[in-house]
Amino acid sequence: MIIETEHLIIRDFQEKDAVGLLEYLSHPRVNCFVSERLCSEESALAYISNTPKELLRYAVCLKEDDFIIGDVFALREEADTFNVGWHFNQR
């Protein structure tokens, strides 16, 4: 999936996103869930490749250089209920 706006691209994760993903998901102010906090590029790659099938998760990137600045996600909890959220780099 790809959605483009004037300044952003929302797309599926790619391996090249690991460095940017680590930059913001290792920071406690961005990610308050300790179980999801990343500590290495390897853990970022695992995060990208091990997305559960029931979780919709997409990279949000700057259009000018395709660098990841955050992600958005949604998880269906019940037939009529979704849990939605996002993480964005502080910088």
From TrEMBL:
SUPFAM superfamilies: Acyl-CoA N-acyltransferases (Nat). Gene3D superfamilies: 3.40.630.30. The keyword Transferase applies. Keywords: Transferase. Residues 8-90 form the N-acetyltransferase domain. GO terms for molecular function: acyltransferase activity, transferring groups other than amino-acyl groups. The keyword Membrane does not apply. This is GNAT family acetyltransferase. It comes from human gut metagenome.
